[in-house]
Amino acid sequence: MKKRDAIQKGIDNLPAHQLTFEEKRRAELEKKKDDARPALLKRMGAGLLDLIFSAAVAAGLFAIAYFAFFEKIGYQGASSTMMDVYQHSGLYVTSADDSRFVQLPEKYNSELSPEKNYDEPITNFYTTNARAVREEMNVEYIQRKVASNYYIINDEGDCVRKAGISEEVAKAYLEKEYYRAVDYLFNDPIIVNATRLITYTVPITVLIVSVISFSIFYFTIPLLDKKKRTLAYMIFRIMPVTSEELVTPVNSKIFFRSLMYVTLNYISIITIGFILGGITYSFIPFLINTVCISFSRSNSGLYDFGTKIIVINESRSNAISSLQQIAGKGE
Q: What is the pTM of this model?
């Protein structure tokens, strides 16, 4: 037996003196709410479609920004500079699938000596990089090796590992020197500026185009629509109403509902991921909201409960007028 039929049977079987008019009105109201509630898949499908719309617009805006502004602010030049750094510094090698550059420790070759793995690339960098040559970094590097008591200068004038120093000790020491060289490389003012431009340009642009897209689909369209629907709500023929009066919500309620929706489903993911440096916990608010929609009686999200709004299926015959009549808002 369907839940709404069970509710109706329970109402009809109760003696009149056991059920006040207000109680019966509220019970009828809950039944009508169940009748007008959209299917769960329809509700989730509308949310997904709105996301697809907003993501498509955001992607289009990003493409426009990339071709119109990125070159003007020097993004391509900065990218080229960084690519040259990875390719020509000698301090990076390509990954196993050649899809990215990785640091030398990630591809350490245990069949070669620590000097082959680290010392030769470091020496090559210090003797070919213009800034390193100008600041005589290779001389300082040799001095540090000798001062470590792991290396000596032999009769030929070469800096070699001291007898009795194991490969494990030499590897640990040279690995620290490798990271020192990488730090020196990325402290070059030219590279610092290029890194900063690359690091912040894309995220800031994504943030701006996302705000514009979200504003269009989750704020502007619902606030301008007579029934306060998003574009996907129009397509799926569902609409928001207040949970008590069952009338179209005022603009302030719609604004705060949209703000809570965007915050829970999108902004929280970005914020938590940025703070924690990963995506492990980023989707927790989204998952909590999804569970709430899936298992709540009215298929309502946290943003619905927070603004006292429910979503009803306007495609059902006379759904709105029936609800308002039961609530005492109609004739």
A: 0.70
